[in-house]
UniProtKB/TrEMBL annotation:
Provenance organism: Paenibacillus albilobatus
UniProt keyword Transmembrane present: yes
Residues annotated as domain ABC transmembrane type-1: 89-280
Any Pfam family matching the protein: BPD_transp_1
Family label: Belongs to the binding-protein-dependent transport system permease family.
Transmembrane annotation, as ranges: 21-48, 88-112, 124-145, 157-178, 199-220, 262-280
Domain of life (superkingdom): Bacteria
First-listed, main subcellular location of the protein, grouped into a coarse class: membrane
Membrane topology per record: Multi-pass membrane protein
Record protein name field: ABC transporter permease
Subcellular location: Cell membrane
Amino acid sequence: MQAKLQLRLRRERKVNRSLPVDIAIFGLLACAGAFMAAPFVFMVSTALKPLDEMFLFPPTFIVRNPTLDNFYDLFLIFANSWVPLSRYIFNTFFVAFLGTAGHVVLASMAAYPLAKLKLPGGKFLFALVVLSLMFASQVTSIPNYLTVSWLGLLNTYWSLIFPAFATSLGLFLMKQFMEQIPDSLLEAAKIDGASEYRIFWNIVMPIVKPAWLTLIIFSFKGLWGTGAGGQGASFIYSEQLKTMDYAFSQILSGGFVRSGPMAAAALIMMVVPVAIFILTQSNVIQTMSTSGMKD
């Protein structure tokens, strides 16, 4: 009965538009979509350009004579390196996967008591978290280095993974979502005998799925691109532990002759985060539209 009533209300609220208005809206959205896709299309086109087309003036947006020589040259460069490309790929995935998983779990576990339990000083702690969002990563790089050095984790994978666990953005995002969960739902679970851990894992986490899926996107993107500067370059000295971003940045040392392989490397670095964003975005939209709850 309630479902039929909601369907009837949706039909009544539906706005009738004429065909020209629908065409105009579709055209406007298509233009906006093309504008947002232009950087990605240009990067793909640049990666497929031969060297002579890269330095044309005015530059061409679409490649005229597409070629895969840039990718071949890129893999040829790493084939002659004493550290294989597969090692850099493993390092990048290992750091990004563990850093993202740990950040999501720890941020969620820390956000739950701040959002649903009346802790003494909880508001003050959350105010510090909000304040920390104002600081750029360059400001905290020296304290992070000193902390990692004191723990004896320099020149290890954990020098990149542990700082990712403590990113304040995840705690802020998860707390804001958990506050929207009705307290009556949690109280009903406690009456049924559920413990706090069971409530957290079986009730709270499925409801806030949009939050931690979004957090996965941001965390993975940040860890995937680490290495060329900042923590990746200062925390890890061994070449066998460096990530792809650092390895690809070394191609620039070859001058403009390696502009083609560098364009191919930039495309490879962008494909994985974009693919994860596309796959996760569909889940986020679906979850937001189907898991809403009201008091």
